[in-house]
Amino acid sequence: MELSVVMPCLNEAETVETCVRKALGFFAEHGVDGEVIIADNGSTDGSRQLARDAGARVVPVSAKGYGNALMGGIRAARGTYVVMGDADDSYDFTALMPFLEQLRDGADLVMGNRFKGGIAPGAMPPLHRYLGNPVLSFVGRLFFGSKIGDFHCGLRAFRRDSILRLELQTGGMEFASEMVVRSTLAGYDIREVPTTLSPDGRSRPPHLSTWRDGWRHLRFLCLYSPRWLFLIPGLLMMAIGLIAGVALATGPIHVGDVAFDVDTLVGASAAVVIGFQAVIFALLTKVYAMEEGFLPHDKRVQRVIDSWSLERGLVVGGLLALAGLVGLVASLAHWQGHSFGELDPRDALRIVVPSATALIMSFQMIFASLFVSILAIRRRSHPPVIDVVDEATDVVEAAADKVRSEALDAEAPADPRDDTDTDGDAAGAAEDAAETPEAETVPAEAVSAEAGASAEGAADKTA
């Protein structure tokens, strides 16, 4: 089968039959071998029966959520290609040919773009049209280098095996973003075609929640991009804090009538610490996501991990701690020089704040190095050790035991009640037994060679 059209459904009795008939009409008009799957997410309004009567195959999906329903339908699909679209009659299932043509041409994922194809009046709320979708799509392009203009178009097509290979995880509305992001990170061939959006045919409110689902999309985009979530903000904070801290370490700075002094120095120190922590979090998140398969392997991160061993982290952390301790000793000497009396905060804090900052960063460095080392631990299943000689010896001994057993059976006295010539039969059996080792067993050298080859083959497979 070439094409499966999958529609998630939750109480769409008003529109599901129309959508199914449109998709089946597309198959008939263009001679496409296809099917329509309704991934029902617990409808109670008769949607299932209406879909069956219209000619669709209904797949019940117990796990609630837009993404769960779609994944249930995608797994049940029989087509090489899959088109997914809402069952609310807002998308035109008679106009799927541009999607199918791109798939036949080798695309892995074909996205619809409603902003290029046309949005009918009343089809999309102004907040979604002018703020939500443009902003979230811009964030997706910025964070992941995607060229898709409409990240959240509900009408899209893809190769079934390509999407299943991604092992998508989200179960809600953010599934739409995850598909684009994971496909982009996997290097898939992603294309875009114009599509139209019409007002849906339902009389009830949509399932989509503007703020809740918008936040879930934004949260997903941030969590899948440690660089923008942690690394870039952390580097900016560290740079600002270091520049301000170095400038204030020798004395106050006056900009017009405004004086920046030790209070600003404390804030600069906090910025350095927070920024350094964010940079470490970026590294830890990236390592964890790579190990668990959420994000693709990054050679740059791998080089950092390979070059930054636990021992080096401990050494750098120790040096920072030493610098902090030296500064604290210097502050004690400064206090002693004033007979342990009252100090001018502007002088004392210029020694204490940098020293405390170095101590805090030293422990952050040590703890991060330890945690990265823990993440790098692999679960291994060690193969059993096979001694080829012992294995061959066991085979030979088992064969010899079998021959001896057969020989003893042949030499056993005949039953007295037997009137036949037992002596002749026994002699014949003994002769057969004597010939058995040559006929049924393998020489020890051959057994050893075969066992050695088997062991080498097993070792190759294990490696």
Helix content: 55-70%
Structure summary, number of beta strands: 9
Radius of gyration: 37 Å
SSE pattern, N- to C-terminal: EHEHEHEHEHHEHHEHHEEHHHHHHH
Let me know the largest β-sheet: 7 strands, mixed
> What are the segments in which pLDDT stays under 50 over at least 5 consecutive residues?
416-463
Strand content: 5-15%
Output mean pLDDT.
83
Oligomer: single chain
Order of adjacent strands in the largest pleated sheet: 3-2-1-4-6-5-7
Shape: flat
What structural category arises from helix and sheet content?
alpha/beta
What's the helix count? 17
User: How far apart, in Å, are the first and last alpha carbons?
Assistant: 39 Å
Detailed description of the structure:
This protein is α/β, with parallel strands linked by helices. Helices cover 61% and strands 9% of the residues. The protein contains 17 helices and nine strands. The chain has a seven-stranded mixed β-sheet with strand order 3-2-1-4-6-5-7. Strand 1, helix 1 and strand 2 form a beta-alpha-beta unit. Helix 1 runs parallel beside helix 2 (47-54) and helix 6 runs parallel beside helix 9. The model is unreliable at 416-463 (pLDDT under 50).
